[in-house]
């Protein structure tokens, strides 16, 4: 008779995974212990137990900072997905309902496109706690890597590697100028005309700016950016003040901005704005509910 292999006495536990993920996210054993509410030696023991069992270094120390080794880096999205799913199960068992409470961390780069979607979701799920942060696209992607965000509204040519998502809008990248600007009555402007303008742009980590400057490089133009700002609202205010003209997605310009959109004669200046999430988090209840709410009228 064939014997069933004996089960290992040391099984992988959720407590160990929580400890490991917290150390990576907070960057230290003491911060992880404080967050979870246990002693620092307890956190250290959980990590050492995992490393000993699998004979693999999972954490690397550099001075007072701790980070994931390459062996752990690729596993972190799945570890975080497991912990999030367990959180869903605990919520369901406690409240005996599918999606009663919880939290959703959202990063958005363009409030005109993100806030209506967030508002729709909040109306349908009032018990979900929302933390929404305005950031540039590249900064949002860094938060995904660190496990500090669940949903992102980002601008780019395509959905970033490692993420799933849906296209929210496809739009032109344009010059935004006051109504009384000499170029305001033109349907399009050339790259040579763009080269002579004083430009107001988003910060260097902005998806819109990356697309614009890549197209300018191909056209052989070096844009004259006089000021980089962290939001479209700030850019629109300075445009109205006569400081310069802005670079923006046409979809983010509204009537109250006091600007007119002028297209640049370059068909490559098209941006896609996506809603994205980690692939392994797609079945987490709050993330799945947000995905479905994108199609609500």
From TrEMBL:
Similarity section: Belongs to the LysR transcriptional regulatory family.
Protein name according to UniProt: Transcriptional regulator, LysR family protein
Keyword Calcium set for record: no
Domain of life of the source: Bacteria
Single Gene Ontology MF annotation: DNA-binding transcription factor activity
Cross-referenced InterPro entries: LysR_HTH_N, LysR_subst-bd, WH-like_DNA-bd_sf, WH_DNA-bd_sf
UniProt cross-references to Pfam families, sorted A to Z: HTH_1 (PF00126), LysR_substrate (PF03466)
UniProtKB keywords: DNA-binding, Transcription, Transcription regulation
A cellular component annotation (GO) from this entry: protein-DNA complex
Domain HTH lysR-type: 12-69
